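Give me the fold.
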Amino acid sequence: MSKEQHYDVLVIGSGAAGLTLALQMAPHARIAVLSKGELTAGSTYLAQGGIAGVRDSADSTESHISDTLTAGSHLCRLDAVKHTVENGPGTIDWLIKQGVPFTKDSDGQLHLTKEGGHSHRRIVHAADATGKAISETLIQQAKKHHNIDLRSHAIAVDLITRRKLGLPDNRCIGAYVLNQDSGHVETYLAPFVVLATGGASKAYLYTSNTDGSSGDGIAMAWRAGCRIANMEFNQFHPTCLYHSQAKSFLISEAVRGEGGKLLLPDGSRFMHNFDKRKELAPRDIVARAIDHEMKRLGCDCLYLDISHKPAEFIRDHFPTIHAKCLEFGIDITKDPIPVVPAAHYTCGGVVTDTSGKTDIPGLYAAGETAFTGLHGANRLASNSLLECIVFASAAAADIIKHLDQHNTLAKAPFWDESQVTDSDEDVVISHNWDELRRFMWDYVGIVRTDKRLQRALNRVSLLQQEISDYYSNYKVSKDLLELRNLSVVAELIIRSAMLRKESRGLHHTLNYPSTLPEERDTILTPVNYDWREG
């Protein structure tokens, strides 16, 4: 493969957002879609619950908007919420047209389930593996288009902008990309670049995401000069399977939506002590309640029990969860499921408008990478897949309008590998990786304090110095690039948390337990060129 690739649009990320944009642009442009692992790598494939959209006559757009604002502690941007919710039904229709096999009821209608924070049944799903169904369907459709090139094992190193090249009229014109098969960095040039790389939950020791989620797009955008917002709002999913070999397998919100009960080790319920909605309270409340009870009792996990439902109902509604738990000797038709909270979703990200445009011309962001204002201080369950499709569609429409205006690109220098060598100290990467994720979990987790945040900031600063030295002297690798990006994102999370002098939604601090009357976003703006841009 040539060291330089030319496309009309470069999409970094192969999840729901990236593939939606590629499919909607395919009749108009040549597109490259990059995935740093297999095409199914990332959070979309792992999503179990579903996609929210008003489909029932008893439901309403106003109700979905209200539920979203309530879950987001009223920090949501109303224009983004309205734009997303109003496009919900059409988004689901588009996915059906692509061939996504959503579950239907006995009457042949879409089966709607209910999740925490929702006042109505409005979650369209494909059993308990909705993300898998959407991912496989969109990949299958993308493979049919001759205008879409799907590149696996290709991880973006950094964005190329005219400002970085010392040219006037700043614009993003491509990215340097590590071809993991060859081990060499290639240059991808395109007048439009889309970041769809997911969130940053791998900054934490325990996460529901097994691949991706290392904040790559957020870190690259920050280094390029984009504003980043609301990174203090990290959603911890309340119920991940607790088992030494399970690697934080997610137990869907829908289990609680269908009547699952949270139990203490003695079998008693406790959610009524924290919220009148009990198990159907929003995720931040449930996660804090579980964290509180685990610390109070000194236990390793709590339990989620759905066994009071008929066995056939459980197997029909949760076949993936049932099968996975059986692998670890847990029959959820008879036994409660041991669960713990785990880092799950990044509500903040790269600041965009409702068309997905960032601060840099030619650069767009969609999905979990972006801060659209939809989620506010806490994401409402199953609004994430909806956001991916809605904003990727909006970005595609905006790019199509401007395709003919930008077809001349500046030349970018090839990546210089002459000054670096192969590393013989990869243990440094693994040690730094482990240290970062542990102090983020301990100091910047579900409950925070000023002292813990300052400790975390001191440690991330030292780590960044070590990573910078390593990055300057050795050939890049996937692990090194992810660690470099996570150290940037960890600092953004810490600094955002330090700026918020209140407890709101997912940000809970013992120093400021009250919620302020004024709702404001935390927006960070890059200032000086430093090691992270080199």
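The domain at 4-232+347-405 is CATH 3.50.50.60 (FAD/NAD(P)-binding domain).
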